[in-house]
Design goal:
The structure holds 2 protein chains of 2 kinds. Chain A is an alpha/beta fold. Chain A contains 20 helices and 19 strands. Chain A has helices at residues 7-16, 52-55, 59-70, 84-93, 122-131, 176-189, 195-203, 283-287, 296-310, 328-337, 355-364, 381-387, 393-405, 424-444, 473-488, 500-510, 517-525, 539-548, 553-557, 578-589, and strands at residues 42-48, 74-80, 111-115, 147-151, 167-169, 209-210, 215-220, 223-229, 238-239, 267-270, 272-273, 292-293, 314-318, 345-347, 371-377, 410-417, 449-456, 493-497, 572-573. A 6-stranded mixed sheet of chain A has the order 2-1-3-4-5-6, sandwiched between helices. The model of chain A is unreliable at 625-653 (pLDDT under 50). In chain B, strands 1, 2, 3, 4, 5, 8, 9, 10, 11 and 12 form a 10-stranded mixed sheet that branches. Chain B has a two-stranded antiparallel ribbon with strand order 6-7. Chain B starts with a strand and ends in a 6-residue tail after the last strand. Classes of the chains: A alpha/beta, B alpha+beta.
Chain lengths: 653, 234
């Protein structure tokens, strides 16, 4: 790495002396690849549309980076959004977006592929495409311009970006990435017959790939009537891709080991994908179904190999709810006994709210016990039934008791406000819980503190709450005011809240349609990048752009949808039946909970049945301890299998 | 047993900071299975003791790090394994053993030699401004100490300054020996007092010195035994 330089690097190098954190731009991580680009290879530039520190740990990009570089005709490198200081210098000096691996110009690649994990990064996507030297609108691109392809959770409603991205990949990328590479390879080999249109048309034959330019949105005034394909051979509905067996994909095999500060700087091993706890606000849990566990043996191997290779002292077992992993106890015991893993601390980033979860954490976390994080999400049992996060107060108190008694000094509690049916009593309930947690903590340590972190709720596509009209900016601000008042009478509680303005913009982008695209473009053209960063977010810039393009943001964000609403994402599918989601919405309003289908009869949400796949769970018995959606009594542990009636909905709790 | 590692830092990796280098060594020592000693207490830390920090963007021919090991180790084995574990651009030169009673690197080092390439002025102009500095009794700069601005005389830390034409880049290069005893004089601070102003395009630490006023040695000479790291042909 140190010796190989390109002409572009020589241009970039002097600029790096003038920017903050130049290590963001040098590559050279452990596991970084410097592939040779042969003629005819399909070259992917995997780009995270936010800073290097945020983007480097992204597991999705690391997985695809390895798979493409292993493939016979693919090469892959990485790029990240340059911070504003470097961007200004790049524009002044004519330096284009570059890969960090070999410092090649983006234009030397065929495809620039983005991971879209957050809507507020959309303007950064446009900025990166522009810095790459490719026109931001698909309609303006020529044969030699980059193809812009996106994947990740936000792609379940890619419509706001429909005029800016060439192709969208829905669902797991492991298989589909090679199919896309092969299609591009054949097209390039044949001399690119039919131009851009032909290869894009070809891509629509690959399940999971959506090409927005081959569809048109039909409106009746404000209302969307349908989004339909322009050609008969283009599928009317695009299904997501799902890999049936995570065990076949032990990636990343050589996770990138950064040489500078990044978030989550540790070994990450994904223990399962998907979640069926059924929290109704949670898009990740809905769109990644079914649950597919990695074989415990493979998890152990990945930990052992990763630690030996990289020298990490911490491994995170990642998933949407890791304490639910069937093999958790075996994996932990074996890892603790692995001579490769001495002094290794294991962390569970998604700790379940009960004593069982804390006990596991206690067993794992060697060294200083600073803080534990729980996500009860709502302040009252009523509210938690609405959102189907079935944590009882005693579960939380048990967890907190367990944490403080075992040496932790701080707890952090995550909540949402602006949830459907939320009353001020529910909002105030957040602090009721927090105060009780402080009381429990004070029994163990006078320094006990509880941090309450509150985010504004944004309804997401393919969730039961997709019909819900988001709380207005004013209402969210009022609720934060209620919480601030509560905080004044709560000693030992620290209160943090998410900016309501960011929540509004996220809401606009989450459920927006193609007409939102010009708003994004205008905000970008007016300098609105890094909108995830509160110091860069400027709501007026968004509202002005809406006004300029005749967009009524309130109609998009605040409006309650009715059952017959045609969503901008109705021609896309995460496997979930729309009537299942509607029924869940109705049950939410009726405050009726729904059990976890991993250990109970199927509700036919569609995620398994539609694709002929199943949950891959090593144990038919629910994990010990939790009452959360398993239908179990907390005291009875994992011994008693759950009995539930098929399809019957019973109030829980 | 206390190991003194000598390494260079060059190429793209010069853009990482001092803390990054520390983390890289912590991890690489684990990968190399070097039995590093840990501090006592609830939050044990590996016992690593670095020398003077190298600013982001600067290269160095000679950086040092002292590592305490829990048990005695074979120097050649450590050199081979650790050398293989370190990332490109951080190249292990040798591993020595120093006495437990040694003075820490931070306290022992009295001056550093730097090669500073500058542009913005021609050779004669740079030579003239260096001559003016050397002729001065006092050279004052503004610094911050505990958040408050102070004025320091850096003339005592300008130990040696030589100007010549660097043939590769065709820019003036200054070989500067800058003192580190009171408060380490940084190359950027030195460059800032040159008048008319120049811009440093490349800065490289050549040597670190331990001087008792009579003789001077480099930190890797203060060892009781040592093993060089040879890179394999691959």
């Amino acid at each position: 790495m140190s010796t190989s330089t390109t002409a572009l690097w020589n241009q970039l190098e002097p600029l790096l002396m003038r920017v903050e954190k130049p290590a963001r731009y040098i590559g050279g991580e452990g596991g970084a690849q410097t592939p040779i680009h042969n003629d005819g290879d399909v070259a992917w530039l995997f780009t995270y549309p936010d800073t290097y520190e945020v983007g480097l740990p992204n597991q999705g990009l690391q997985i695809l980076y390895e798979i493409v570089n292993e493939s016979p005709h693919g090469v892959a490198e990485r790029s990240y959004a340059p911070w504003t200081d470097l961007e200004a210098l790049m524009r002044a000096e004519g330096v284009p977006l570059f890969s960090v691996d070999t410092h090649r110009a983006a234009s030397a690649f065929d495809i620039i592929a983005f991971n879209l994990s957050a809507e507020l990064t959309y303007t950064n996507l446009l900025n990166c495409v522009d810095l790459a030297g490719t026109p931001v609108r698909t309609a303006d691109r020529g044969l030699d311009d980059l193809f812009v392809i996106v994947g990740g959770h936000c792609t379940y409603n890619p419509e706001p970006l429909a005029d800016y991205v060439d192709a969208v990949v829905l669902g797991d990328g492991e298989e589909v990435i090679s199919e896309i590479t092969d299609a591009f390879h054949c097209w390039k080999q044949a001399g690119r017959p039919g131009g851009r249109e032909a290869i894009l048309r070809e891509l629509t034959t690959i399940v999971g790939v959506y090409v927005p330019s081959l569809y048109e949105a039909v409106y009746d005034g404000q209302d969307l009537l349908e989004t339909r394909p322009l050609f008969d051979d283009v599928p009317a509905r695009v299904e997501k891709r799902t890999i049936a067996d995570l065990g076949e994909w032990p990636y990343p095999k050589t996770p990138l080991v950064p040489i500078t500060d990044v978030v989550h700087d540790r070994l990450n091993v994904e223990v399962f994908r998907g979640c069926t706890r059924g929290c109704r606000f949670c898009q990740a849990g809905m769109i990644t179904r079914p649950v597919r566990e990695r074989p415990a043996e493979q998890v152990r191997e990945m930990i052992s190999a990763g630690v030996a290779r990289a020298g990490y002292d911490e491994v995170a077992l990642t998933s949407l709810s890791t304490a639910d992993f069937s093999g958790i106890e075996g994996v932990i015991a074996d890892t603790m006994n692995d001579p490769n893993c001495s002094n290794l601390s294991i962390s569970l980033p998604s700790l379940r709210v009960d004593a069982f979860g804390v006990d596991i954490a206690a067993e794992l976390q060697r060294g200083r016990r600073s803080g534990l994080t729980f996500a009860p999400e709502a302040g009252t049992w009523r509210m938690r039934q609405v959102i189907n996060k079935l944590i009882r107060e005693e579960d939380l108190y048990g967890a907190v008791e367990s944490a403080f008694s075992q040496g932790w000094r701080r707890s952090k509690l995550y909540f949402l406000t602006g949830l459907p049916t939320e009353t001020d009593e529910d909002t105030r309930g957040i602090f009721e819980l927090a105060r009780n947690c402080v009381k429990i903590g004070k029994h163990h340590t006078s320094g006990a503190s509880v941090t309450v972190s509150v985010g504004g709720f944004v309804p997401k596509p393919f969730t039961p709450f997709q019909w819900f009209g988001q709380n207005t900016l004013e209402e969210l601000r009022r609720k934060i005011g209620v919480l601030i008042d509560e905080n004044r009478k709560s000693r030992g509680v620290q209160f943090k809240w998410h900016d309501a303005e960011a929540t509004l913009v996220e809401g606009l982008l989450s459920r927006g349609d193609r007409r939102i695209g010009p708003v994004i473009e205008t905000v970008w053209r007016n300098g609105g990048t890094f909108q995830e960063w509160s110091e860069h977010l400027d709501l007026d810039r968004w509202l002005d752009a809406c006004a300029e393009h005749g967009i009524d943001h309130e109609w998009y964000v605040y409006r309650h949808r009715t059952e017959d609403e045609v969503f901008p994402w109705d021609h896309l599918s995460a496997g979930l039946h729309k009537d299942f989601l509607w029924q869940e919405w109705q049950d939410a309003l009726a405050e009726v909970g729904l059990e976890d289908c991993r250990w109970t009869p199927c509700y036919d949400c569609g995620a398994c049945t539609g694709y002929g796949i199943e949950h891959v769970v090593a144990s038919a018995t629910p994990p010990a301890g939790g009452s959360q959606g398993t239908g179990q009594d907390l005291a009875s542990g994992g011994a008693v299998p759950v009995t539930l009636l098929s399809k019957a909905r019973v109030p829980v709790g | 047993m206390i190991l003194r590692l000598r390494f260079s830092k060059q190429g793209k990796i010069r853009f990482i900071g001092h803390r990054d280098v520390a983390r890289i060594f912590e991890r690489s020592l684990r990968v190399a299975k070097v039995p590093v000693a840990y501090s006592e207490g609830f939050s044990p830390r590996p016992k690593l003791s670095f020398g003077l920090a190298l600013s982001v963007g600067y290269e160095s021919d000679n950086e040092y790090l002292d590592v305490s090991t829990a048990v005695d180790v074979d120097l050649a084995e450590v050199a081979a394994r650790l050398g293989a574990a370190l990332p490109d651009g951080i190249d292990l030169i040798e591993v020595g053993e120093v006495a437990r009673s040694r003075t820490s690197l931070m306290e022992a080092v009295t001056s550093c030699d730097w090669a500073i390439d500058v542009d913005g002025q021609d050779l004669d102009t740079v030579q003239a401004s260096v001559d003016r500095l050397l002729a001065a009794d006092r050279v004052m700069i503004e610094r911050e100490r505990k958040g408050k601005p102070v004025r320091d005389d850096i003339r005592p830390d300008l130990l040696s300054l030589k100007v010549f034409m660097h043939t590769e880049t065709a820019t003036p290069r200054i070989h500067a020996e800058l003192g580190t005893e009171s408060r380490s004089l940084r190359p950027a601070e030195f460059v800032s007092v040159l008048e008319p102003p120049v811009r440093a395009t490349s800065v490289r630490r050549l040597h670190q010195w331990i001087s008792d006023g009579m003789t001077r040695i480099e930190p890797h000479e203060a060892v009781v035994s040592r093993a060089a790291h040879t890179k394999c042909a691959s």
